[in-house]
Amino acid sequence: MLYWLADLSRGGDVFNLFRYITFRAGGAFFTALLFGFFFGRPLIDFLRRKQKKGQPIRDDGPATHFAKAGTPTMGGLLILSALVFSTILWARLDNVYVWIVLLVTLAFGMIGFADDYAKVTKQNTKGVSSRVRMIAGLVVAALAAFTAATAHPEGLSWTLALPVFKNTLFYLGILYVPFAMLVIVGAANAVNLTDGLDGLAVMPVMIAAGTFGVIAYFVGNAVFSTYLGLHFVPGTGEIAIFCAALIGGGLGFLWYNAPPAAVFMGDTGSLALGGALGAIAVVTKHEIVLAIVGGLFVVEALSVIIQVAYFKRTGRRVFLMAPIHHHFEKKGWSEPQIVIRFWIISLILALIGLATLKLR
User: What would the pLDDT profile of 184-223 be if each residue is shown by its tens digit?
Assistant: First the structure.
């Protein structure tokens, strides 16, 4: 919205700053951060009054989690509010990619909110059935994938780009839609599975968002994309503003989610943020790179898939408990040990993902 102040510029004045994505990304970051600081405590107090007993704790979970009983959930509302407000304030609202990512984020946030609401009101850990959540997510992802494919420039539409191989494109045609759906829904559910310890999911999400903010800026810039041998997607630079707002909102939330958490993100936040990462990967044509940058989320999801498949086949378990962060809890690792070590892994994977921009 503030971008239109650039129309008042005659060159060389303060209004000219609003033309620059980097300036507006900085503004979005600080706006979202301050939003989180100012509204975090009132929101937590509101959630505590409304939920009373807070998020229900799994009976079969680690014993240390029972001490968290009564902690309110749906804290993802804080991130989403800061993210949406900052993005609308600082991004160009005539950019289709901004709206694709923003609407996917909100839609998955609504799915997560419905799930959290069911859990809190019924005081059980089941919530909305996984089938309903999956169908709703697939519908949202299908609409986003189709819109992104039609919005991409000629030559990139309906194609899959590979990292490292700069001139390689695989034309998928209509099959691109189910592929992109898998990326978006997979990312949403992978982040959701990762969100099991205080601060565990939000920091890797911010690291991934920062990485894709850089990617989006380069992909949307004709000079940088040519120099790095990237596929130029005009307009995706505005996604950097969304990513900056996500980081700011995430930090504002982490202030209250740091151990011991005053509020949980809940499915409201985890599904929304995962869906956002998936949508960003799709619009920037870096779907494969998301599997690298978000490798931690991939491992968390695979640990559940392996555990379930192996148990159904043999009646035995591969891990002491899945997702894998609970396995390490059962092995005696403290929560801060797991969280910080997983943060480090996320940072390493993000650097590897960024390296693919230069390795061409």
Answer: 999 999 999 999 898 999 999 999 999 999 999 999 999 9
Count of CB atoms situated within 10 Å of the CB of 147: 18
Structural domain contains residue 36 = yes
The Cα–Cα gap between 158 and 174 comes to 7
Range of 257's domain?
21-288
- At 59, give phi and psi (nearest 5°): -70, -30
Backbone angles phi, psi at 298, to 5 degrees: -65, -45
Give the residue among 98, 92, 102, 86 at the shortest CA–CA distance from 3.
92
The reply to whether 306 falls in a domain is no
Q: Which of 202, 192, 350 is nearest to 286 (CA)?
A: 350
Does 321 fall in a domain? no
Nearest-angstrom CA–CA distance, 148 and 282: 7
Residue 308 lies in a domain: no
Are 185 and 272 contacting, i.e. CB atoms less than 8 angstroms apart? no
d(CA 187, CA 71): 26
For residue 171, the cross-strand partners are 159
The phi, psi pair for 178, rounded to 5°, reads -65, -30
pLDDT in tens, 159-188: 999 988 877 899 999 999 999 999 999 999
Q: What one-character-per-residue DSSP string does 287-352 give?
A: HHHHHHHTHHHHHHHHHHHHHHHHHHHHS--SSSSSSHHHHHHHTT--HHHHHHHHHHHHHHHHHH
Total domains in the fold of the chain: 1
pLDDT single digits (tens) 108-144: 999 999 999 998 888 777 778 889 999 999 999 999 9
pLDDT tier for residue 291 given thresholds of 50, 70 and 90: very high
| Higher per-residue pLDDT: 317 or 260 | 317
